[in-house]
Amino acid sequence: MTNATAPGTRINKFLSEVGHCSRRAADALLEQGRVTLNGVVPELGTRVQPGDVVAVDGVEVATADQERIVLAYHKPVGIVCTTDTRREKDNIIDAINFPSRIYPVGRLDKMSEGLIFLTNDGDIVNDILRARYGHEKEYRVTVNRPLTPEFIRQMASGVEILDTVTMPCEVEALGTQSFQIILKQGLNRQIRRMCEALGYRVRRLKRVRIMNVELGDLPVGAYRALDDVELRQIREMTQEAKS
User: Do 206 and 218 lie in a common domain?
Assistant: First the structure.
């Protein structure tokens, strides 16, 4: 077993960093004896070293020296952003069919399409998902009837949904029944609920940007790795938001 006083990463922190679960949840898994390190159940303070293999319930989570992966994926309509491959046949993990274990960062509802990140880097997951950082997400939306100036004004100023009022946001008409909206919050099915509250129904919803990363011409169902410039900018943006 790896020595708890040796250099390395504490195993609960390691499970969090690779995106498997929070540190608190990792502590619970460790206490239940469900985690193994190189095939042996470790103590709570054990540190993971390069080359070590960590598994939960017998399923390998990651090796300590694995490559960090961050993908931009064009999620199709009909795919659910869940890692539960047994209960949900239309899950994002089977849809992307990536050769190693990755997790979606946030959600995009089943009937929406567009950009979503998948990664094995728990630090990026944690930083991006902290809503108080206010990271921008941009969408193109088509609704069921013509837009009015009042609809655009109300969408931009805030709409009452889910026992709260949405934060002010940028909204711009693109056509008679389509608009662009940039959000800095992520309430459940937020855009659809906002439109419904104002008497509109969403016909198409597509996310085209997250922070500094644009969907561009990435085909539906395809993915690409984020490049070094994009990753550096994401880390800079999340670090700035923390300070």
Answer: no
